[in-house]
Design brief:
The complex is a heterodimer. Chain A is α/β, with parallel strands linked by helices. Chain A is built from 12 helices and 15 strands. In chain A, the strands form 4 sheets. A 7-stranded mixed β-sheet of chain A has the order 2-8-7-6-5-3-4, with helices on both faces. In chain A, about 50% of the residues are buried. Chain B has helices spanning about 1-5, 10-15, 65-75, 80-100, 100-105, 110-115, 125-145, and strands at about 30-35, 40-50, 50-60. In chain B, strands 1-2-3 form a 3-stranded antiparallel β-sheet, covered by helices on one side. Chain B is α+β, with helices and mostly antiparallel strands. Classes of the chains: A alpha/beta, B alpha+beta. The interface of A and B includes residues 346, 365 and 400 of A.
Chain lengths: ~400, ~160
């Protein structure tokens, strides 16, 4: 297990958070000092508008930004830095695919395939695309263990969908989807595949080339990077077909009175002044994760998750959702009739931060037949003691609410 | 403990034995709202006539705060003038958001007072307000559909 990492994260040393057990990293992670320092240094020493100035300071800003792009590319093993487009977050990246690619390629009457496991960010953009293009949205369901029904996927693939959008790891159930296998099957059927990596990239080694993703999205803030920076990976074979979504500065090669030409990829997708500090912070987060090693991160998460599942199973009246094995570091549950909000408020009084609600996955909640679940998620700064404090907290909650629930 | 300030006996009582739970068959105001924060749903049905809430019921499920709030609300507003209902909603909103609502304390209304603790838990204000927001929206829809006599009867002198 990884140890002593908590001290790298200044938030945990702040007076208000000394006793905090933070179990909501699936929503957003905390940042190590190194990330904060890198952003600070950029603003303090190298801030200028990238790609624009002819002076050395602007050149340094440009170098920081493009070096961050190269670092992201290497981190997910993209074939080239040009395949990396910086966005605000994973949601914006999905919308860029919908407006920039799918709007130009999906024909009326064609099928768009998504899964019931999707976060709203990889679902609502496709609902809207289906409406705009007159396409038909269809679903791959999940079974009682939260696994996608691959038999149903085979059926759906026979309907020749234009596009399949799916998550690599479910933020609500902790399911890890076999994306490489799914993409291989989809490609045999001629289907373009969009993968949501928001919950996978922070926790495991991701290789977009070996999985053969057409498009892959993730957020910086869930992987120790800053808020406000996300990534759209677009495989080079789609570059000609990907059109700008936002228009304006820096995304053009030339502008005339009534006509403009676009810049090359990826810059044609990045209109306006970019979030250079965000890219710099993300690069620092990648360095941090790289030094620890993604295998070590995955092992740490796995140990915590296994311990948590073992302990949770022992609780009376616990309902655990999601797979029993090969479970990502995010666990959804309910205890008896205690509403997850009441549970979260109770645990918060003991310094334990869990998520409660629908986790932006209302289709999952609908399928489970609940309005909400409690959710605990782990990351590299969490410890076995954190898990034990959660379990103690849950026992205390059962006692507190037990009188009348 | 702050928690006991939130989960007061009155709330627990209303949660365990909700008043006016169900759906009115003869309702002329019907509105369903969701708490976007948690997905909890409430269906509120009312019979409004001559500017008065004649009957009211709520259905749905949710946390202690949202369910108790809905239950207390239905008890309070049954038989109340619509204009007065609006005032009470405003006072309740102020109470749970800021902890200040002189009008509520002046009435020594224990059931509403019991929600004062919510102000210490800002993330739970939405839970407490769900039923009241539904009510206000429902009344507004009703007034659009029936401009008289509710809107034209500010004094409530009719009854």
């Amino acid at each position: 297990m990884l140890t002593d990492l908590r001290k790298e994260f200044p938030l945990f040393s702040a007076a208000a958070n000394r006793d905090l057990v933070y179990l909501d990293s699936a929503a957003t992670a905390q940042r190590p000092q190194r990330v904060i320092t890198a952003m600070n240094d950029f603003y303090a020493q190298d801030n200028a508008n990238p790609h624009r100035g002819a002076y050395r300071l602007a050149e340094r800003a440009t170098q920081h930004y493009e070096a961050a792009r190269a670092k992201v590319a290497a981190f997910i093993h993209a074939a080239a830095a040009e395949e990396i487009i910086f966005t605000r977050n994973a949601t914006e990246a999905v919308n860029f695919i919908a407006y920039g690619w799918a709007d130009h390629h999906v024909q009326p009457g064609e099928v768009i395939l998504v899964t019931e496991l999707e976060h709203h960010s990889n679902l609502v953009p496709w609902q809207m695309l289906a409406q705009r293009r007159g396409a038909i949205l269809k679903y791959i369901e999940f079974d009682d263990q939260g696994h996608l029904r691959l038999d149903q996927m085979e059926e759906r693939l026979r309907e020749r969908p234009r596009l399949l959008a799916l998550t690599q790891v479910s933020n609500a159930l902790g399911t890890i989807n076999p994306v490489a296998e799914i993409i291989a099957r989809a490609h045999e059927a001629g289907v373009v595949v969009v993968v949501d990596g928001a919950q996978s990239v922070p926790h495991m080694r991701v290789d977009v080339q070996s999985m053969q993703a057409d498009f892959f999205v993730f957020s910086g803030h869930k992987m120790l990077g800053p808020l406000g920076i996300g990534v759209l990976y677009a495989n080079q074979r789609h570059h000609a077909g990907l059109q700008p979504v936002l228009y304006g500065g820096d995304m053009i090669s030339s502008v005339d009175y009534h006509h403009s030409d676009w810049n090359d990829m990826p810059w044609k997708m990045e209109a306006g002044t970019q979030h250079v500090a965000g890219a710099v912070g993300l690069a620092a987060a990648i360095d941090f994760l790289g030094e620890i090693g993604m295998e070590a991160v995955a092992e740490h998460d796995h140990t915590l998750t296994r311990h948590a599942l073992e302990q949770l199973q022992k609780l009376d009246r616990i309902i655990l959702y999601g797979p029993r094995e090969n479970h990502a570091a995010v666990i959804s549950f309910n205890i008896g009739a205690i509403h997850p909000h009441d549970l979260a408020t109770f645990l918060d009084q003991r310094g334990i931060a869990i998520r409660s609600g629908h986790h932006c996955a209302q289709l999952v909640m609908r399928k489970l037949g609940v309005a909400a679940t409690a959710r605990a998620s782990f990351y590299l700064y969490n410890t076995l003691e954190d898990v034990d404090r959660l379990i103690d907290g849950l026992n205390a909650a059962k006692e507190y609410f037990g009188k009348w629930l | 403990m702050a928690l006991d300030q939130l989960y007061q006996e009155i709330l627990l009582d209303h949660y365990k034995q909700p008043r006016n739970k169900g759906v009115l068959d003869d309702a002329n105001v019907r509105l369903e709202l969701k708490n976007p924060f948690c997905g909890d749903e409430i269906l509120l049905t009312l019979r409004v006539a001559d500017g008065f809430v004649e009957d009211v019921a709520f259905a749905g499920s949710g946390c202690v705060i949202s369910q108790a709030s809905a239950s207390v609300m239905t008890e309070k507003i049954k038989g109340m003038r619509v204009a007065q209902v609006r005032e009470m909603a405003e006072q309740f909103s102020e109470l749970v958001k800021t902890g200040h609502a002189e009008a509520v304390s002046a009435q020594e209304d224990d059931d509403l007072e019991a929600f004062r603790g919510v102000c210490e838990f800002p993330t739970r204000v939405k839970c407490a307000m769900l039923a009241w927001r539904t009510l206000l929206q429902g009344l507004e829809h009703h007034e659009h559909a029936h401009p008289h006599p509710v809107a034209s009867n500010p004094s409530g002198a009719q009854k």
